[in-house]
Amino acid sequence: MDRYKIPILFLGPTVMIAAGLQGMHSVPLTFALFYGWLLLVPLGSFILRRRTADLAKPRIQTDRKQQWQKTDILLGIGSGAAFFGAIVAAAAWFHPLFLDIPRLKGLLQEWHFSGEHTIWLVLVLLVLNPLLEETYWRGYVLRKLTDGRVSPAMAVFLTSLFYSLYHVLSIVPIFERPWNIALVLPVFAAGLFWGWMRLRHASLTGSVLSHSFADAGIMGIYFLYLS
């Protein structure tokens, strides 16, 4: 049974988005399925491990961990600021190539991501999304892979690959061809970087901060060109 668990963990988020967005054509249902999966799967595993008293031991000493956490936070803020700047700058220079603004405004209205609903988009992207995605991919799944299954480098690669997979479903309808496929590559690269941060500092704080800044860059595009 365990050999089927990892493929399910890899594909579960993509299946949830496909079911809600492409299957049911409902953004609220998509959010409920997707974020419900990201939250409940690691939470259920954590509760089970608590009951069986099988919690993993810390991999580094407390004093070193505190020092690394400080470095992790600084790296998270610094890299996140760089991501934010790169996203906004790329949009400023190249948005005529990959954004059909009238079509995209209509799509956002259809998805209820405009007007009075904008605050929900902000909260999801800046708070819920980075926290749950990092907890699931760089916390839960990456840890499972590195517990004797594959090498750390392969674990980072695989989690980044499947993290990128479901972004295809959300990016393709938004951006113009062929840029919509090409824009998945920065998502994959960011996943590699955040996976490296997780392994290097044994903490999710930095990757969550960096991820949140990157999502703030996406919100910057929204407010500059789509609001």
Automatic annotation (TrEMBL):
InterPro entries: Rce1/LyrA-like_dom. Residues 117-216 form the CAAX prenyl protease 2/Lysostaphin resistance protein A-like domain. The chain crosses the membrane at residues 7-25, 31-48, 73-94, 114-132, 153-172, 178-196, 208-225. Coiled coil: none annotated. The keyword Lyase does not apply. GO terms for molecular function: endopeptidase activity; metallopeptidase activity. One of its GO terms (biological process) is proteolysis. The keyword Transmembrane applies. Keywords: Hydrolase, Membrane, Metalloprotease, Protease, Transmembrane, Transmembrane helix. This is CPBP family intramembrane metalloprotease. It comes from Paenibacillus elgii.
